[in-house]
Design goal:
The chain is mostly helical. About 60% of the residues lie in helices and about 0% in strands.
Length: about 220
């Protein structure tokens, strides 16, 4: 079983039953494809663990990829068309543009997020925006828009706190504008106070450090 290290007995049976050896199974799982049946479909579409990211970036299912492949459309062109809302169809060869491969940073970030269970469309938005896969993880898992995540992070919010506001970052910033200094917004907001309450507390002598204690006590779990 040493060659199948990292797999449960049930996973070994499923990957073997789908016709995969340990190295190939590990490569697919590393690429974010955890279901042997999906890996088999990706392979039918001529995808490999290294190239499957092209399809994944477009939010395509393995079945979508197989249909495009059967129609002779290259992965990059199919991904572009899928994002534009097209369904699989035959495309004349002269209208199939060359599309560059995504950079290694995008690929690495996308794979890390997909392995963490982040949906393909959310993972793609973070990867395409230049996020590192590790730093994006908590934000993407909580489905915080990547643009909002940048602003929330700049204000000092954690991913859990940002998601807990259930508001776009710009609305939070507008609501707190002028109530307390920007560098204190996250502490007062996460402590459970409204902007008006925080302003009154601050005016009465409560410090940002004391608000930070309340914030720690109020922090949501993982």
């Amino acid at each position: 079983m040493t060659e199948w290290d990292g797999f449960t007995q049930g996973e070994v049976r499923r990957w073997r039953g789908a016709g995969f050896g340990p190295e190939e199974a590990a490569a697919w799982r590393e690429a974010g494809v955890t279901a042997p049946a999906d890996a088999r479909l990706w392979r039918t579409a001529a995808a490999t663990p290294r190239t499957v990211v092209t399809w994944q970036r477009a939010g395509m299912t393995p079945r979508d990829a197989v249909r495009w492949h059967e129609l002779g459309v290259a992965s990059h062109d199919a991904a572009r068309r899928h994002l534009a809302g097209e369904r699989p169809r035959r495309v004349p060869w002269w209208s199939r543009p060359a599309v560059p491969e995504p950079g290694p940073g995008v690929v690495d970030a996308l794979r890390r997020l997909l392995r963490a269970g982040v949906p393909a469309d959310v993972a793609r938005s973070y990867a395409d925006a230049g996020w590192d896969g590790a730093e994006a993880g908590e934000w993407a898992r909580r489905r915080v828009d990547q643009g909002d995540a940048r602003l929330f992070r700049a204000l000092g919010f954690t991913a859990a706190e940002a998601a807990g506001t259930a508001l776009p970052a710009v609305e939070v910033m507008a609501a707190w504008w002028g109530a307390v200094p920007l560098e204190e917004v996250a502490s007062w907001c996460a402590a459970g106070l409204t902007p008006a309450e925080a302003a009154r507390q601050r005016a009465s002598g409560v410090t940002a450090e004391q608000a930070a204690v309340l914030r720690a006590l109020s922090s949501p779990g993982p």
